[in-house]
Amino acid sequence: MKEITLSIAVAAIVTASSSAFAQSVPDFKGIDVNADGYLTVEEWKSSGHSEADFAKLDADNNQFVSSTEFLDATGSTEATKDSESE
Ligand SMILES: [Ca+2]
Ligand SMILES: [Ca+2]
């Protein structure tokens, strides 16, 4: 009984904290094939993601996604919700 309840609770937490990104995005270094610390749109698309998603990640629109931008956009900070305007 207790384990079942726990499983449901965990599932609920996982569902609640998963964004569209978090489910499918590999880790930053996995995408950054030339290991310069930035993702280019080519690297991003090579990893199977869309250019539209790259634009979302590139918060300052400099055509590179830094690890900070990546982490921000992939929702790794739990305190950050969808309250920020686009
Ligand atoms: Ca790179
Ligand atoms: Ca950027």
Please describe what this structure looks like.
It is a single chain. By secondary structure, this protein is mostly helical. The chain has a domain at 20-73: Recoverin, domain 1. The chain contains six helices and two strands. The chain has helices spanning 2-17, 20-24, 28-31, 41-46, 51-57, 67-73, and strands at 38-39, 65-66. Strands 1-2 form a two-stranded antiparallel ribbon. It is elongated. The N and C termini lie far apart (44 Å). The mean pLDDT is 78. Bound molecules: calcium ion (CA) (2 copies). One calcium ion (CA) is lined by residues 32, 34, 36, 38-40, 43. The site of one calcium ion has 7 residues, from strand 1.
Total strands: the figure is 2
Question: What order do the strands of the largest sheet run in, or round the barrel if closed?
Answer: 1-2
CATH C-level label of the domain at 20-73 = Mainly Alpha
List ligands, each type once.
Answer: calcium ion
**Major sheet, described briefly?**
2 strands, antiparallel
Approximately what portion of the residues adopt beta-strand conformation? under 5%
Structural class estimated from helices and strands: mainly alpha
Note poorly predicted spans: none
Short account of what is shown:
This protein is mainly alpha-helical.
Give the helices and strands, then pairings.
Layout: H1 2-17, H2 20-24, H3 28-31, E1 38-39, H4 41-46, H5 51-57, E2 65-66, H6 67-73
Antiparallel strand pairs: 1-2
The structure holds calcium ion (2 copies).
What are the salient characteristics of this protein?
elongated; 6 helices; mainly alpha; 86 residues; two-stranded antiparallel ribbon; 5% strand; single chain
